[in-house]
Amino acid sequence: MIAPHIHELITSKGASVIRKMFEEGVRLKKQHGDDKVFDFSLGNPDLDPPAEVLRAIQEIAADTSHGAHGYMPNAGYEEARAAMAEKTAQEQGLPAGSVSAAHVVMTVGAASALNCVFKAILSPCDEVIVPAPFFAEYRHYVHNYGGVLREVPTKADFSLDVAAIKAALSPKTAAVLINTPNNPTGKVYTEADIRALTDALKAHAAACGRKPYLVCDEPYRAITYDGATVAPVFPHYADSVIVTSFAKNLSLPGERIGYIVVNPASEGADEFVAACTFALRVLGCVNAPAFFQKVVAKAWNAPCDYSRYKARRDMLMDVLSSAGLEYAKPEGAFYLFCKVPAAWNGDDMAFCDHLKQFLILGAPGTGFGGKGWFRLAYCVSEQTITGSRAAFQAAMQEPPEQC
């Protein structure tokens, strides 16, 4: 018999709603044909990896030297960690060499990175504050280690409500978790937001004696639009941690390669890295995949063109506007967060079921802590977007059933 709490989680109405929609899409495509189903459910990047990445894959695959597929230190190959340190220093606006391989742990994607961080820092009943809406799996990642996720609503434009976060801080707060560009809203938090947040965390630490970690989940960092940029955190807050992956920027989601970088300015940086390395081992990952550690060490800075995502964003916004749907204009990532029409009284689950009748698949906002909204992933073909226009218009013309 499985554990009761797991049974409750997997059988609840909102359980794994994104994956359920994706699997429903597979079924509907078999029934109606690929071109008749408009599947916006899963953020599965469809751009091919850059040529430099493909060349690195070929070169490394050709290596038949002894031990090429053996174990390495749990934290990862030195060359891979050094490359991620260099990448992070550039992104954080720090001098070359200020972040070293010693501050990096290679992981099995960003999900593994977050789980390692939470296992390293959470004691039972510790709290992690997250601005809502947020990536739905955060609830499970925190709960895995006896923690409590405290959801704090963002402002109306989905920017950080620092006053609300400040009010939620307590002696139980182990961390604040932010995701920018945000999944599901596409919001990019400004440097002013980050400064205000870190000032609040410093003031809280001075008052209560416990300094929360600032955990920054950044797999979409490179995918921004209209001049938006992701603000650095390391210069503003010593106890900050970056978790990320190459799933989105290099289009490698299935390869499960990511990493943790602990701010070298953190007083306990060495211990934090050691704790995350231990967590990676005891969670059963042991180490990140050897092959793709070598790939990203060679090709992490491959040039990428995300203009097709921007074009698709604009195409989908035009489709939704023509149907009379409201949405938040994304500044990054590849999601549109859309408002459920007023006639549906904020019932995003029911509205997504309604869209499904027109072969449109989206993810209800409730799962992201954004009741009354729904998410559409536009990392899909242009044909899917243009083909959905008539379906969205038809769906909006049919009112909800009245009880």
How would a crystallographer describe the biggest sheet?
7 strands, mixed
What is the CA-atom radius of gyration, in angstroms? Answer: 21 Å
Structural class of the helices, strands and pairings?
alpha/beta
SSE pattern: HHEHHEHEHEHEHEEEHHHEEHEEEHH
Q: Please tell me what the overall shape is.
A: globular
- Strand order across the largest sheet: 2-8-7-6-5-3-4
Specify the helix fraction band.
25-40%
Number of distinct helices: 14
What's the pLDDT, averaged over the residues? 95
Give the percentage of residues in beta strands: 5-15%
User: Could you name the ranges where pLDDT drops below 50 across 5 or more consecutive residues?
Assistant: none
What is the strand tally?
Answer: 13
Give the end-to-end Cα distance, rounded to a whole number of Å: 39 Å
